[in-house]
Design brief:
The complex is a heterodimer of chains A (482) and B (251). Chain A is an alpha/beta fold and 482 residues long. Chain A has helices spanning 4-11, 35-44, 49-63, 104-112, 117-122, 142-147, 155-161, 163-169, 180-188, 429-437, 442-453, 455-458, 463-477, and strands at 26-28, 87-89, 127-132, 135-139, 151-154, 193-197, 207-212, 223-228, 233-241, 249-251, 254-259, 264-272, 284-294, 300-307, 312-315, 318-321, 327-336, 341-350, 356-366, 370-379, 387-397, 402-411, 417-426. In chain B, 37% of the residues lie in helices and 28% in strands. The longest helix of chain B is centred in the middle third of the chain and has 15 residues, at 95-109. Classes of the chains: A alpha/beta (482), B alpha/beta (251). The complex binds adenosine-5'-triphosphate and magnesium ion (MG). Adenosine-5'-triphosphate (ATP) binds next to helix 1 of chain B.
Chain lengths: 482, 251
């Protein structure tokens, strides 16, 4: 009679579903990082002088910085001189006006990923800005958005078409020397998304971007900037998956959000980059700086993330609650299976009066995965009557994995109300047996129990995304435990 | 339907069942009674295939099939249902979602078509009315935060929806108020059928006033020491287990 453990182990034999490489000719910079390379990137993108200067200043800062070592992750040293910092599909100039003009091979790739653009387009009002390698090659629904004054385009386009907005906001939330990886990104960022929601506009559709790392040996340095003017609302979705690779790929993205008075930004991520094989070979290094500024009164920023991919994850979507009565939220599911390592969490910095923040973190460790929650809540002296609620739950599947929790709390104003809950549980043999007794096999039981564990986070995701996230979790869990 | 022969089972090196014989025919209701720790739940868990319990000797057959060759979910597919003495909580998983997954897993395994949402809901509503389970409980996570009595009732609801061939009820009456006890009994009685059998584990004769058993067995220290008709339950109620102690009177 097979035991629960046997069944789960048998599932480990499955291969990474989305492992394949598309062959598109790349227009690639030689490996290495220097002021020349940065000038090359900037020239390729036809950027104004101020932006080149900005990049160079970041680069000079980066040269003096050391790679952080405090995270609870271990990986081979990265040789920054062996990485290519620029790659773009060849037909850069004549950008496609519709899906028909897109390289069929790229479309086929999306098809394999189960995200055919054509369907996406029709899906309940989702506008898709697909980033293939470093340059956006498809943007839809843009006209409809333009009628409302909403700008949704690639970062490079924004630099050309809305330089004043980019210049005003770039680096205001994540300074270009904020940390080692943010500085690197600031120097060499390739592309990403730009969103601007004008005053009083409620963006009528979820804005969505699918990122994909594809070119050999090419680091991805996404740069995303979202600005929500007074009283506006936007929900932004980011999802990604990547092809099978042998060497580790570095990904160092920066996302900046700015919410003005009464504005709301909801930022949801489903991250499924190649995690490496069972022995921990290959896989993406995902070193991301995401930060939102609640600039205006009663503004609100909400981060929701489902992190199932990458070999190493280092990511702390944060909120700076500057406006009085502003609200920050962080909902996270992070799964580490096989040799995956995730050190993730959030930072909530309370500056304004009556600011409040909520943190719900669900960490799942399976195989030999190591999952660390690292969260910091700071209540500054100015933050009269601030409140925080944190809940960090960990679930262990099997006994070779690990869960770690590092909550840092720093309260400089005694009026603060802080609530912290934490739990660690092993997935119950009793729960699995109970499901088995009702006729449900162990594989389905495990994904059901884990999905139940993550419920509070999933319900924060937009509907279609929640379904996708659940499916992703199931796929990622195949191959748990020993 | 069920044939248990000379069953020996142990948990953590300790022998709990020391030779149990039990034969249950289709359409019958058997009651198993016995003092705390005598091995009643162990018997139920062994039937359902819980990993921790090791069968060291004897045989278990359901409709002529060797249960020991079957995984727990296969036993369920074959029509075995266990109402747990301590139902398990599954936070975040909706009760009706769980039941639908269970129903369809069983249907699939039996080569039947899966029920769609509408058909399932109809079935669920009907059975919920039968065992008087509140709609609100259907929407809540499985057993999570349920009162003791609600959990027991939920087990009976699951049984009513899954329509097993053999249902083993492990102290489903414990913790029920008198009205709930009557509803649960009524539910069981409504499900009594020619091709279905029940093994009811209980401490109290009271339940057996409502679910009248065809046979009563006394389990003592891992053995069935006496079997009889429903009058045996009354005798136990009066005299307790003292008379059976060691002497294995009338076995
Ligand atoms: N997992 C286990 N580990 C150790 N001992 C166990 C385990 N399960 C059962 N036992 C022991 O086996 C014996 C029989 O337990 P069982 O639960 O079958 O009794 P029971 O007849 O159902 O009792 P009750 O009427 O109290 O429910 C007890 O002594 C119990 O402590
Ligand atoms: Mg018991």
């Amino acid at each position: 009679m097979p035991t629960a453990t046997d069944t789960i182990e048998a599932l480990a034999e499955r291969d990474y579903e989305y492992g394949f490489v598309t062959d598109v000719e790349q227009d690639t910079a030689p490996p290495g990082l220097s002021e020349e390379i940065i000038a090359f990137i900037s020239a390729k993108k036809n950027e104004p002088q101020w932006l080149l200067d900005w990049r160079l200043a970041a680069y000079r800062g980066w040269l003096k910085m050391a790679e952080p070592t405090w995270a609870n992750v271990r990986y081979e040293p990265i040789d920054y001189q062996s990485i290519c910092y620029y790659a773009a599909p060849k037909s850069d100039d004549d950008r496609p006006k519709s899906l028909d003009e897109i390289d069929p091979e790229i479309l086929a790739t999306y098809e394999k990923l189960g995200i055919p653009l054509k369907e996406q387009e029709m899906l309940a009002g989702v506008a898709v800005d697909a980033v293939f390698d470093s340059v956006s090659v498809a943007t839809t629904f843009r006209e409809k958005l333009a009628e409302l004054g909403v700008i949704f385009c690639s970062f490079s386009e924004a630099v050309q078409d809305h330089p004043e907005l980019v210049r005003k906001y770039l680096g205001t939330v994540v300074p270009r020397r904020d940390n080692f990886f943010a500085a690197l990104n600031s120097a060499v960022f390739s592309d990403g998304s730009f969103v601007y929601i004008p005053k009083g506009v409620r963006c009528p559709m979820e804005l969505s971007t699918y990122f994909r790392i594809n070119a050999m040996n090419t680091g991805q340095f996404e740069r995303t900037l979202i600005i929500a003017e007074e009283g506006s609302y936007v929900s932004y979705l980011e999802g990604c998956t990547a092809p099978m690779r042998d060497e580790n790929q570095l990904h160092a993205a920066v996302v900046e959000l700015i919410a003005h008075e009464d504005a709301q930004i909801k930022y949801s991520t489903v991250q499924n980059w190649y995690p490496g094989d069972k022995e921990g070979v290959g896989g993406i290094y995902n070193f991301v700086t995401k930060r939102g500024l609640c600039e205006g009164r009663r503004s609100k920023i909400s981060w929701t993330q489902v992190e199932t991919g990458s070999a190493v994850t280092w990511k702390y979507p944060s909120c700076i609650l500057r406006g009085d009565d502003s609200v920050g939220e962080f909902y996270s599911v992070a799964l580490s299976n096989n040799r995956q390592q995730a050190d993730t969490g959030t930072k909530m910095v309370h500056v304004g009066k009556r600011t409040s923040s909520t943190i719900i973190s669900k960490g799942i460790s399976a195989g030999e995965g190591q999952n660390t929650y690292r969260g910091s809540v700071r209540i500054l002296r100015s933050a009269e009557d601030a409140r925080n609620f944190s809940q960090c739950d960990s679930m262990l599947i099997g006994d070779r994995c690990g869960a770690h929790t590092f909550p840092y709390i720093d309260v400089a104003n005694p009026s603060a109300q802080m609530e912290h809950e934490a739990s660690t549980s092993k997935i119950g043999e009793d729960q699995i047996f109970y499901c088995n007794q009702r006729g449900i096999d162990t594989e389905d039981a495990v994904s059901m129990i884990v999905n139940g564990f993550c419920k509070e986070v999933f319900r924060e995701l937009p509907m279609e995304f929640a379904v996708e996230a659940q499916k992703l979790l199931e796929v990622s869990l195949e191959g748990s435990v020993g | 339907m069920l044939r248990v022969r000379d069953l020996h089972a142990r948990v953590e090196q300790q022998e709990i069942l020391k030779g149990v014989d039990l034969e249950v025919k289709a359409g019958e209701v058997h009651a198993v009674m016995g003092p705390n720790g005598s091995g009643k739940s162990t018997l139920a868990q062994v039937l359902a295939g819980k990993e921790d319990y090791e069968v060291t000797a004897g045989s278990l057959e359901l409709e002529g099939e060797d249960l020991q060759e079957m995984a727990p979910e296969e036993r369920a597919h074959a029509g075995l249902f266990l109402a747990f003495q301590y139902p398990v909580e599954i936070p975040g998983v909706g009760n009706s979602y769980f039941l639908k997954a269970a129903v369809n897993a069983n249907r699939k395994a039996r080569g039947e078509s899966e029920l769609d949402a509408m058909d399932f809901l109809k079935l669920l509503r009907e059975r919920a009315t039968l065992v008087d389970v509140d709609e609100a409980l259907l929407r809540r996570p499985v057993n999570d935060g349920f009162s003791g009595g609600e959990k027991k009732r939920n087990e009976i609801l699951q049984m009513a929806v899954l329509e097993p061939r053999l249902a083993v009820l492990d102290e489903t009456d414990s913790g029920l108020d008198i009205d709930a006890l009557k509803t649960v009994a009524a539910g069981v009685n409504a499900l009594r059928a020619e091709n279905r059998a029940f093994v009811v584990i209980t401490h109290y004769q009271r339940l057996l006033n409502y679910i009248v058993p065809d046979h009563v067995h006394v389990l003592l220290d891992g053995r069935i020491v006496r079997s009889g008709g429903s009058e045996l339950a009354h005798e136990l109620e009066e005299k307790g287990y003292a008379g059976f102690d060691g002497a294995r009177a009338g076995a």
